[in-house]
Amino acid sequence: MTSMSDLKTPHPPNWCPGCGNISIWGAFKQAAVNQGWDNTNTALVAGIGCHGHMLNFVKITSLEGLHGRPLPVATGIKLANQKLNVFVFTGDGDCFGEGGNHFIHTCRRNHDLTVIIHDNSLYALTTGQTSPRTPQGLTTKSTPQGNPDEPINPLSLAIISGATFVARAYAGDMEELTDLITKANEHKGLSIIDVLQPCISFNKSLTHDFYRERIYYLGSDYDPTDKDEALARSRELESDRIPLGIFYNSDAVEKGKEPQKALIENEAADRDLDKLFRKYI
Ligand code: SF4
Ligand SMILES: [Mg+2]
């Protein structure tokens, strides 16, 4: 049993009032309480950015990686103890800028991690520079004439790179996000949740109002095991309608997509580190 007070740290959140990070924090804690995640069964990893403060506000063992590097750190934790629920918090700059290479290869290897992307479409901690998710034409501190580049589509990239659970959420809907985080963790393989997270201080375009006018949920007739359809629907982000929910969930583990061989070998070795060292070093 985990209670909200078990997760409390001495540090009150210092995000700007109204920041989307606050509801991602709330949704994660609610999922942790519902599922009994605590220090005995869960580890958290973050990169660098406003999202990284999350680790100061949730009392579960955690590690903040270098900028863009939370995915390899989390992979190492999972390899060392595959019984842990391992969550990665990362920003759009952290994940697709500095960490773009790691993102592709973590998807390709399909490690059993849950990745929550705090996607505010710019670098917020450094006060509002263009990130790989910034819409084309948006004026930011680093692109005063407007961003000349096309943004990355996180879901399309995750699907074609090999992730087997791919979802989009909106930070303003905590209930749905809590449910998605729970389902993502239940999935055996890499789970990606791209969370549209308004930065109220530096992104005056992608506001709560902007999202509320455009978002809708994939209906019950949508089949998330259809990878081609998932890819097609992921591209709707480029239109005026923004679908939310689980786009792709392989569930039945595809051949060759199973949690890695190394993890299975690790379990067989019963985490005997001497044995592992002798084998690999
Ligand atoms: S700068 Fe933006 S992302 Fe960072 S805490 Fe403030 S509102 Fe949130
Ligand atoms: Mg960002």
Secondary-structure class: alpha/beta
- From the 3D coordinates, which CATH architecture would you assign? 3-Layer(aba) Sandwich
Q: How many structural domains in the coordinates?
A: 1
Which fold does the CATH topology refer to?
Rossmann fold
The CATH homology group name: Thiamin diphosphate (ThDP)-binding fold, Pyr/PP domains
Instruction: Give me the number of helical elements.
Output: 10
Uncertain runs are: none
Radius of gyration: 18 Å
Beta-strand fraction estimate: 15-25%
The outline comes out as globular
Tell me the span between the first and last alpha carbons: 40 Å
**Quick one: how many beta strands?**
8
- Share of helix, binned: 25-40%
Q: What is the H/E order?
A: HEEHEHHEHEHEHEHEHH
Task: Provide mean pLDDT, rounded.
Answer: 92
Ligand names? iron/sulfur cluster, magnesium ion
General description of the model:
This protein has a single domain, classed as Rossmann fold (3-Layer(aba) Sandwich). Helices cover 34% and strands 16% of the residues. It contains 10 helices and 8 strands. By secondary structure, the chain is an alpha/beta fold. It has an 8-stranded mixed β-sheet, sandwiched between helices. β7, α8 and β8 form a beta-alpha-beta unit. Iron/sulfur cluster binds next to loops.
